[in-house]
Design goal:
Elements: H1 6-10, E1 17-20, E2 25-33, E3 40-48, H2 59-75, H3 92-110, E4 119-122, E5 125-128, E6 134-136
Antiparallel strand pairs: 1-2, 2-3, 4-5, 5-6
Helix pairs in contact: 2-3
Amino acid sequence: KRPLLDFEVKDRHWDAVEALRRDSSVLCHDGRLSRCGRQLVMTHRHFAVDKVWCASESTKQVYEDVVQPLLKRVLLGSGATLLCMGQTGTGKTHTICGVVDCLVRDLAAAHRDLSAEFFEIHGKKCCDLFADRKEIHLRSCA
C-alpha cells in the first residue's frame, strides 16, 4: 500500500485503503453520495490476503519477503513469475520499480546470466517498465 502523495495530503484527500497487518487483510472504504446528493454513504469491505505491507514498509522489505525467495529458486534453475494486481493508485508500480533496484543488486552479485522483464498491463495497454513505460504489444501463440 502506498502512502498518500504530498498533493493528496495538501488537498485533504482521505485514504480509501487500509492495510491491516494484524489479520493480513485490506480494508477498503467506499464513499458514495446518496441519490439525493446530500449524504455520503460509506461501505467498508474487508479482503483477506496472504501478506499485507503498510505504507511505512520499505520496498526492500517487500523484496525480501516476496522476490528474494523467487530469485533463490531461479538461481537453482527454476522459472519465477511475480504478479501484482489491485486497484489503481495503490502502489503496485511504485513497489515494483523499487523491487527492481534490489533485484539488480542481487543479480549482479550472483554473477549469472539471467534476464528479467517488468511490464504493466492497464486495461488494453501494456508498458515496459524497463524502457520508460514504452508501450509494448503482447502476442500469443495458439
